[in-house]
Structure formats: C-alpha cells, structure tokens
Specification:
- The protein has about 260 residues and is an alpha+beta fold.
- It has a single domain, classed as Rhomboid-like (Rhomboid-like fold, Up-down Bundle), CATH 1.20.1540.
- It is built from 9 helices and 5 strands.
- The longest helix is centred in the middle third of the chain and has 22 residues.
- It is globular.
C-alpha cells in the first residue's frame, strides 16, 4: 500500500521533518557518489555482533565473482572486518541516515513526508526531533535484542519512521489516508481509515517477524526494528498525552479542501 495524502492539515511548517528528510538524502548521496559505499555501511551501519561484543573478531560472508572452466560464478568468501572507527554504540544512531538503495530511500522519505508533519505539529519542533531520534535508537536496540549475533549491517530510517507511524495512530485515530492498493494486476485508489492502513502495515511486519516462511531477517530486512519502533512511538505518544505535553489537534479537513 502506498499512501498519497491524509486529511489532517498541519498548523505550522514541519521544519524538522524537512531537515530529517534532507539529512537522509545527504547520507544517501554520500553513499552513492562517495565511492566507498561498502566501507561506509560497514563503519556506520548497525552490526549487532559488534555492539554486543565490541572487541570480538567480526567475520562477514560475501559473494564474489570467480572465473571457472564454465565461466564466471558467484562463490562465498569470508573476510574479517577491520576494527571500528567509531563507537559501535554510536551506530545505533548513524545507521538511520544510510539506505540500501533508491527504492529504500524514496519509500522512507515519502512515508516520513506523509506522517511526520502531523506528528511534529503536535509535539513541536524540538520535541519531534528528540522523539524521532529516541524511537530510531529504540528500534535499533530492539533489532540487537532480536538477533545479537548478526554480522549483517543494518541501515535505514525505517525504525524511526515506524515510531512516527505509531505516534500518528494514537494522535489521529480518525484520520483517513488516500491510498494506492495494487490488487493483482489492478491499481485501486482507496480512502482508508488510519487504523486500517497502519494496522495492516503492522500486522504485515509482525507476520514477517514471527513466521519462518515469511521472515526476511536473513535478507537484511530488520522487521523487529520496525515493530519495536512502532510500539515505542505509540507508547511514547500515549505518555506525552497523559502528561499534557501535546499541542492541540488540528481540525480535520474534507477531501474537497
């Protein structure tokens, strides 16, 4: 499902949300055009085994081309990562500003654009910044707990954005989202209540995390980071509401506005 827009207006310009999207764009551009993407990801990406055992040798598996009698084939090769140039704990934060490809970056940027402005509207600029970073770090911590021995570098803002979506669900339970839904070969445009859209998204993540047949952890998709970020964002928004630290809710607009 691809969200197009919602029916919740923002009362102020989402300056921090724009800045976060820009920071992710800058990090991705450095990856693409910096000439050393693999080294950058292995340095600033989150490697759970390195965080849990910072002094241990980290051996990773690569697929490298090798010429054989039958032509060029991809074979497994193992190599040891060099010692980290930054604290492994810092990578819980830095991994949020790197991405695994254009679709990964554009998808995250679009979801943050759709949901982040309304959350920033209720939390305020500075509060939203701390909220985003907190849920991102929390999602990284959940990923480490889910697979502490993993040597696969994890990158992306998905965990923090999942936290934003969790907060959105609590803050705007009556919101509606114009959504593109591909059904087999047909492309349908539907208006879905926010709990339906976000509930389906969460259940999809949960199914990937708990069902061995659909689990994508081995493919580098940190679904438990998504789940952890979503739950962290939902709980934190509830705590902020209970302590009266939220701004007023904007008036919901009609689709004709």
């Amino acid at each position: 499902m691809i969200p197009i827009k919602d029916d919740i207006p923002s009362r102020s310009s989402p300056l921090v949300n724009y800045a976060l999207i820009g920071a992710c764009a800058l990090g991705f551009m450095v990856q693409v055009f910096g000439g050393s993407e693999a080294a950058l990801v292995e340095t600033y990406g989150l490697i759970p085994a390195r965080v849990v055992h910072p002094d241990a040798r980290i051996v990773v598996r690569d697929l490298v081309p090798r010429r054989t009698f039958f032509g060029t084939q991809l074979v497994q090769a193992y190599r040891e990562l060099p010692p980290p140039r930054v604290s492994p704990w810092l990578t819980l934060l830095t991994c949020m500003f790197l991405h695994g490809g254009w679709l990964h970056f554009l998808g995250n940027a679009w979801f943050l654009h759709i949901f982040g402005d309304n959350v920033e509207d209720r939390l305020g600029h500075l509060g939203y910044l701390f909220f985003y970073l907190f849920t991102g770090i929390a999602s990284s911590a959940i990923h480490i707990l889910s697979d502490p021995g993993s040597t696969i570098p994890t990158i992306g803002a998905s965990g923090a954005i999942s936290g934003v979506m969790g907060a959105y669900l609590f803050l705007y339970p009556k919101a509606r989202i114009l959504t593109i839904v591909p059904i087999f070969f047909l492309i349908q445009t539907l208006i879905l209540p926010a709990p339906i859209f976000l509930g389906i998204w969460f259940l999809f993540q949960f199914a990937q995390g708990v069902l061995p047949v659909t689990s994508m952890e081995a493919g580098g998709v940190a679904v438990w980071a998504h789940i952890g970020g979503f739950v962290a964002g939902l709980i934190l928004a509830m705590l902020l509401a209970a302590t009266h630290r939220l701004g007023p809710r904007p008036t919901q607009r009609s689709w004709e506005d």
